[in-house]
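Hi W., the NAX complex you wanted:
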Amino acid sequence: MAEPVKVAVTGAAGQLAYNLLFSIGAGDAFGPEQPVVLRLLEIPPAMKALEGVAMELEDCAFPLLEEVVLTDDPAEAFAGVHWALLVGSKPRTKGMERSDLIRENGPIFVGQGKALRKASDAVRILVVGNPCNTNCLIARHSAPDIPDDRWFAMTRLDHNRAVSLLARKAGVQVSDVERVTIWGNHSSTQYPDHHHARIGGLSAVEAIQDEEWLRGEFLRSVQQRGAQVIEARGKSSAASAASAAIDHVKTFTRGTLPGDWTSAAVVSDGSYDTPEGLISSFPVRASPGGWEIVSGLELNDESRGKIRASVEELETERSLVKDLLA
Ligand code: NAX
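Structure:
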């Protein structure tokens, strides 16, 4: 048997993690040959609930799940891990502004960033807890020794939502939809871009024959899907978000399909006029050896304007947490 891959999951007693941990245990993220160790982090009041989750993991008798460690100490959670899935953060409460949420959650990611120094040299970090781009920025600044290409904030759920919507509108399978891009922030300013998408080998405009829908309803539906799920379910997306996190790990472990790309918020290298260092979503090609931002895509004025608006929001968020960026 191979050496186990060690995976830290924070917020491990929360609803998203409840949909995530069992998939990881079953082998969905790392494949049927790869043993896994789960290192689960929670805050002290949630440790009892976490014990319940651990009992259930045990009761699944997953052949690949070698060990489950429960802790409220970030340094212990991250010791030697190859992947850190940072899901835990405080939820937005009634009447709370996005800026309040950023200030509430920022300090969590300073502490966790520092503790990530205990991780394996090969660690990769996926921040899911919101506001995920700016939380990722804070953690990255607190762990300057971890190279830029290891940091991700999750826009895969937005990407999957866009792919699914295009497939349904065109009446094709999701596997026929390629090269969709989510640009910018994981927020309602994100820009789901159909311009380079291919649907069954055609451009999105040719396949869908409804440019007005592509430029209007498609965009708004992806941007507002999270809010719609909350409205309908009374809770935020959990199963689809967990599935997207698994997709992200799979893509960045095994690579994107030939000719296709994915979306992920990564450390900007200045591409597409996005200021260097911001954690912004781009089209990304991955292989088992690494990844790169897809370069050279032509953007029309409308696309450039929409990307700029989302990037400006990220800059505002960065200015709100300036004091937390070591
Ligand atoms: P829950 O409130 O169910 O769970 C969050 C868990 O985090 C709780 O168990 C809490 O005790 C724990 N926690 C809080 N502070 C912590 C800390 N300092 N260390 C470790 N654990 C801590 O929320 P859930 O529905 O699981 O969502 C988790 C996060 O994912 C939220 O921030 C949510 O906004 C975010 N999401 C991000 C998505 C994305 O696409 N990037 C989509 C889904 C989801 O909305």
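The chain has a mean pLDDT of 96.

W.
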